[in-house]
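Dear colleague,

Thank you for sharing your sequence with our group. We've completed the structure prediction you requested, and as agreed, I am returning the results in plain text so they can be pasted directly into your records. Please verify that the sequence below matches your submission; if there's any discrepancy, let me know and we will rerun it promptly.
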Amino acid sequence: MPRVRLVDVAQRAGVSMKTVSNVVHNHPHVAPELRARVQAVIDDLGYRPNLTARRLATGRTGMIALAMPEIDHPYFAELSRRIAEEATRRGYRVLIEQTLSQDDAEHAVLRDREEGLVDGVIFQPVRMGTLEIARLDHDTPLVLLGESASPVTTDHVMIDNVAAARDAVRHLLALGRTRVAFAAVVADDITGSTNRRLVGYQEALVEADAPLTPDLVFSSPDFSPEGGAASVRRAIDTGVAFDALLCRDDKFALGALKALADAGLRVPEDVAVIGWDDTQLASYTSPTLTSVSPDKTALAEVALELLLERIGGHQGPGRHRIVPHTIAVRQSAPYR
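Please find the predicted structure tokens below.
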């Protein structure tokens, strides 16, 4: 069947091509009744914008790319949804890529931007370093998320992981806990996040003159809940005494809760537990999970704002934005 054109929609709806274009691009200055009528024709005819034609006419595709390490990781999934929703609100569609933290896949995110499929890229690198990213041509606007790389030439949005870890440990100490453990470090970890969280953990303990010993920093074979459980189980089996636990993410915290329950330890009576990312999982554990809560909505809004400013022609050095975090307090480490 021949491709449905914009003019076909306009003729069927009895409106101008400009009106159809305004509806397609979600421009606000269209009366609701007219928008509904045009959208009904779009749906009935199965019209889809021709990205190539749009690119030739406007220099833009109305698409952005979002590259995340793992689309099934709870935190990345929730953040991706917020970015997609914010992009839609601003009239953009999102092409989601998964890199699995692989070197070739991460390089492809930046190397292939010039193919003209998208107007800009939001990218959370894991393996690529600051210099690698800085050396690549930035013809297509780019905004970075996360902690792994932060070139001065590129816009970057993140939370302050060191400060967030300090706040989490301070919360545990305020509960009267005296031996706070960290779960966990992973061999060959290239994320950057764990080290920053470990620094904040250590700084808070030093600040409070609380015990800071190597046996309180657990190790895990991987980033799975099973790995988190194994790290806590190993500490218990070897006689490490701890009454509080800061976990590097909610998945580790899930494993920790299971290991503590299996050992007959009560949460929070015997061990208070804090996770990280405040994903939906945190509200459905037993007990419910206190968790470091990055402002995911702010991350999405600021990233889109910076990217669209670049798409609109903003020039200059990279802008680095820190968005807020809180501690979402639930049953595993309640207020005293």
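Summary note from our side: Residues 74-89 form the longest helix (16 residues).

Kind regards,
the structure core
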